[in-house]
Structure formats: structure tokens, C-alpha cells
Amino acid sequence: MLKGSINHLSLTVSDLPKAMEFFVPFLKFLGYIVDGSGSSMVRVNLSPITGGALNIWQAKEAFKGTAFEVYAPGLHHVCFNVESKSQIDELARLVPTWGGRVTDPPGEYPYTDRLHLLRRVLSRAGQYQVRVCLHE
User: Fold this and answer.
1) Is 123 helix (H, G, I), strand (E, B) or coil?
2) Confidence at 74, pLDDT banded by 50, 70, 90
3) Distance between CA atoms of residues 127 and 120, nearest Å
4) CA dihedral over 41, 37, 9, 26, signed as positive or negative
5) What is the distance between the alpha carbons of residues 29 and 42, in angstroms, rounded to a whole number?
6) Are β-strands 8-13 and 115-116 bridged in parallel, bridged antiparallel, or unpaired?
7) What is the distance between the alpha carbons of residues 21 and 17, in angstroms, rounded to a whole number?
8) What is the CATH number of domain 8-134?
9) Closest listed residue to residue 41, CA positions, set 58, 55, 64, 54
10) Mean pLDDT, the chain, as a whole number?
11) Nearest-CA neighbor of 57 among 75, 44, 45, 42?
């Protein structure tokens, strides 16, 4: 493994089964091995390409109603790399079929040197921000 690389990232969601309705096809699209265990606590999804993992946790009962807020302390967003603009266009088409919502169209955004597709995706499991980028 590369020194300084991320081993895993963990997200907590209000409804794990609903969140997985979005994340299963999304992560499979990105080449992840998706956790099909049916665990009600956590799903560990591995990327054989990067060696990293995205773990998705069920929120504790006391926090299930707590909404995600992008500018509150904590996680701002998660961003995944893609290999082509056509993959960005395909994701823009597919995300709504997985329960997400594309809030910003594919395009180049001036605050970065990367091409962003999903500045914000809202899933059926609650709000959290997922992006994809293309380094050109």
C-alpha cells in the first residue's frame, strides 16, 4: 500500500437497506466488490483497483432522524474518480434510477481543476454528498 493513501472511508446512514439501493449499483459501476452479506450494521465494499474500502454503517437508533448538513462540522463529501467523460454522462443518466438526484449537471467547475459530475447526490436514505471526478 502507498504511504498516505486512504485505507477506508466510513459513512453512517439513517437507513442502511435504502442507502444500499443507491450504493450497490453506484459502487459496482465504479468496480467495487459490494458487500452482499445483508448485515444490518455495516457493509464493507472493497475496491480491487485502489485497495481501499467504503464502509457504510447503520446509524444508531438515537441518531436515525439526524439530517446530514454539508457545511456542518464533519464530512463534506466523498469523491470518486472515473476514467472518461462518457462515464460521467452515463452516471448522470443512471443516478436517478438508483434513488439519487443529480443537482449539478456534468461540467467543469471553476473552484477546481477536476471535472465534477455530482456536486450533490441525495439518496432515498437521506442526504449525503457523492461526487465523481475526471482528472484530465
Assistant:
1) strand
2) confident
3) 9
4) negative
5) 20
6) unpaired
7) 7
8) 3.10.180.10
9) 58
10) 82
11) 42
What does DSSP assign to residue 33?
B
CB atoms within 10 A of CB 91: 23
Grid cell for residue 117:
459530475
Regarding predicted confidence, which is higher, 60 or 70? 60
Which has the higher per-residue pLDDT, 9 or 105?
9
Q: Give pTM, 2 decimals.
A: 0.84
Q: Where are the domains of the chain?
A: 8-134
Q: Note the pLDDT tens digit of each residue in 115-135.
A: 555 444 544 445 677 777 776
Cβ-defined contacts of 99-105 (< 8 Å, 24+) = 99/18, 99/21, 99/22, 99/123, 99/124, 99/125, 100/22, 100/26, 100/130
Q: How far apart are CA 11 and CA 64, in angstroms?
A: 13
Question: Are residues 65 and 127 in contact, defined by beta-carbon separation less than 8 angstroms?
Answer: no
Q: Would you state the cell numbers that stand for residue 121, as one nine-digit string? A: 447526490
Q: Please tell me the distance from the alpha carbon of residue 112 to that of residue 80, in angstroms, as a whole number.
A: 15
Q: Any idea what DSSP says for residue 62? A: G
Residue in this structure with the C-alpha cell 462540522, named with its chain if needed = 73
The C-alpha cell that represents 49 in the structure block: 483497483
